[in-house]
Design a protein that fits this description.
2 copies of one chain form a homodimer. Helix content of chain A is 34%, strand content 17%. Chain A is built from 19 helices and 19 strands.
Chain lengths: 574, 574
Amino acid sequence: MAALFFGQMRFDPKNPSHEDNDRFVLSKGHAAPVLYAAWAEAGVIDSAQLASLRRIDSDLEGHPTPRLPFVDVATGSLGQGICAAIGIALNARRIKSLYRTYALLGDGESAEGSVWEAAQTATRFGLDNLCAIIDVNGLGQSQVTQYGHDMAAYEHRWRAFGWNAIVVDGHDLAALLDAFEEAAQTTGRPSMVLARTLKGKGISFVEGRDGWHGKPLKGDDLERAVRELEGQIGPEATNPAIPAPPSREVHKTLPEVGPVQLPDYEMGRMVATREAYGAVLAALGTADPRVVVLDADVKNSTFSDAFEQLHPDRFYQTYIAEQVMVGAALGLASRGAIPFPSTFACFLTRAADFIRMGGIGNANVKLAGSHAGVSIGEDGPSQMALEDLGMMRAVPGCVVLYPCDGVSAAKLVIAAATHNGMTYMRTSRPKTPVIYAASEEFTIGGSKVLRESAADIATVVGAGVTVFEALAAHDDLREEGVNVRVIDAYSVQPIDESTLVRSALATGGHLITVEDHYAPGGLGDAVSDAVAPYGITVERLAVREVPRSGPSAELLDRFGISSRQIATAVRDRN
Amino acid sequence: MAALFFGQMRFDPKNPSHEDNDRFVLSKGHAAPVLYAAWAEAGVIDSAQLASLRRIDSDLEGHPTPRLPFVDVATGSLGQGICAAIGIALNARRIKSLYRTYALLGDGESAEGSVWEAAQTATRFGLDNLCAIIDVNGLGQSQVTQYGHDMAAYEHRWRAFGWNAIVVDGHDLAALLDAFEEAAQTTGRPSMVLARTLKGKGISFVEGRDGWHGKPLKGDDLERAVRELEGQIGPEATNPAIPAPPSREVHKTLPEVGPVQLPDYEMGRMVATREAYGAVLAALGTADPRVVVLDADVKNSTFSDAFEQLHPDRFYQTYIAEQVMVGAALGLASRGAIPFPSTFACFLTRAADFIRMGGIGNANVKLAGSHAGVSIGEDGPSQMALEDLGMMRAVPGCVVLYPCDGVSAAKLVIAAATHNGMTYMRTSRPKTPVIYAASEEFTIGGSKVLRESAADIATVVGAGVTVFEALAAHDDLREEGVNVRVIDAYSVQPIDESTLVRSALATGGHLITVEDHYAPGGLGDAVSDAVAPYGITVERLAVREVPRSGPSAELLDRFGISSRQIATAVRDRN
């Protein structure tokens, strides 16, 4: 940390978020105290503030969060910071800045698969503006790490993955500075400084010993440790001046954002929401240079390939590695890009922990998941997202959108792009008819009442493919002389509480929800949570067992969410 | 597939689940048709049945599921089968069988970080009874893979990770058989057969060309392809006899399961539920030799180290690699072990996709997550599980348990171990007083009414740490002359519907839930879904914003789930 902050990095301590500052990500977030100490030494925070560590009124939390101006992404779940650092390094290219990105990892941390996703991805992109460091102290939380101090084990693996691996004594400042300089001079590939260290170096009764992980020194131990360390400090030197961030000539104003050319879908046309997603994403990329897209080798299914065709330089292919796809998006977002990572919605669960961590900083990432629910059909349960609404709703403040047709999908992509914070859009595989006019407006927190009459005896709330099941049930019931209200709850979070309450109170004080999703955490739970204070109950039609392969329509019926089951639920209330 | 099934593997085709059969995992699950064809050729399924592929009435689904007797684990989310194969290979050691485990991966698939978690773990355990194969056809779903046909790129990486890597022409049967034999003779480390192939080999207009992924041949194309392939088939040979599974002398009856010696916790003693979890796990291991434990370097926090001390041979350390920890557990469970993988509950989200896939087969895995909720205190949001109940409830049929004290935790570990199917136990960091007598019974689907009187005007439902907040609120309110019922909903899924309904109807037709968890998918949603049909509404006290570091009690209050807020909610109803 001393070598990096006061011998290598270029930054403006008065402005930790300067867009050309060299960036530092503490991937081993549990070492937060040394991060805070470094920034205090650099003058960004007051040294006296350090004593507020982990207090409820302090932003110096147990692990770093973006509440602090010098923290780009929350860390503390291991193997994530290195993925974010890739996004930060890619961003330097996007804005044509010469800043370098540094990331410090633990050795235990490098057991995470996401670290190897990062390893292959940084090589693939030739990120020579990225330098990572592994603190090889040989001790994990509970025991000696996998490879202990076997530096060759690390070196072989990183070299095989294409990195410039440099082994150094992590307590030798000159060797570290040489390594950082070698990294800065290396072109075409990222560098990894493998620093052999001893935990607790310089404290005789702690150095290199197991059992001290996360334990503060207290009382006599503390006094003795401080005494021993003070005995090793040379005469006080003035810190060398920190070099200013690299300058650049490009114009540094906010990018110009033009109008987005939306696709022109006439009413009744059959369009899958995933197709509309791709089409508008491509147009959005033309209008706004901050928009970037990430894919995990399914661009021809999510239709994000439409963006790639127009904007190949802002399209990042991470191959089948969803963790680094989302992690890089978190890094890109932290530096001003507007990233849209997309894959099958079920495979976003692969990055659930990254999404969770992104949520801690309300990262400005626009997630999209296609192939939602049993409506995908024959590919079977492994490809069906049935828990994604719950996963995304469990991110506080995350906007969750679930359009049913091409027009609403297109407009909601724009709503997501212009919202400040994390959003998720769920798209569907089957083509569905366009039911909204091009002039229709869609807002975060809104809904559409699609069928309404004074004679309605029940309200059915759908979203996505179930909107069409609800409309069909409406038509079937009307032939029996039964009128039901139908709502398209395209904004699942926040949900349109007032419309739901008004409709429920007008139709018997009860709501029927229907969703192509398991019951926990989905549309029904969202609606129920919102309307419970008004004494309104919610009957949830949802998938309640593991589905199987089969034709889409047969699956909707077999798993309880077809127009037939909606009509039955209405009749049972009647 | 031909070389493996009819030239290498030893198995009893009449009994695909024979415990000594060599095992095969199709990690690239999208190639399901070749798996079904191989088993048809082996005589396990009728060839005529193959035409039922992907139909709703057929078990030959789009991707393999354990509905089929020859499928151990569901695949179709890439990078998981290889992790399960590690568990299957470890199981051979556990039951002292000589069976070998094979896993077939795609080349695109090897971009998944979980593959590299598997790579390091198999080496660490020296699994020379494991042989994986990568089908290097160079084409992903949407484009050429990362390394195309650069066989050296694969070879370097696998060698660096300690595997015996063998590069072969994947269309050369003799070379494949030699490679499998070399793998079988290699000791001390796993083998990886890197098979260079061409997609669509032998069909002139498909071979090696992009754009055919997942596309069936139709009409003239189909006829031409069949004609071309038939022209390449030599004279029909009789399949060689498949070698019988390796025999062994060990006694093959069900293991003897003895009584479990539960820890003796007197009422009022302060015990964290995670401590009770560890203590009873160790005792369970003594009673039942099928019980195994997996850890991701937090055994001293989850207390699973108590098991390691008594049963080191059945304790598997995967280091900080949660995906392979859960994946290996799925494999172990598929072959008769009862695995308990545990880590911090928040880090189970790292394996969310593995849990999802395990749920497709209702795997007999006993997950446990410690450090739930804001009650962990100063470590901050990155270490707090606030979505785990929702994630686990979204696995159909998964039992979700959340004990509040040492006695209930101990008894529920036994309930989980003896239940057939996936279970999840949520444990807490803080010590809490023992409130149940050692004689108390706890059942899956049960609950405990802790406070009850005829004068109750409201019912508060808690679980885990919030049970104590509810009890404190009860005491505070009683001083004001207000009586409330208090329920400990220790079984979150299935939930005790009848007790909840009875209590709600006796106390105003309404329930107040309180949970150390975000609102979506948690206790409140579980309760609401269960009682909605009875016209009962649920007010949910839950964490609704990203928390922060601080003392446990201050966090409970600040984020809305303390005794003070419960009392306020009761008064507001009154």
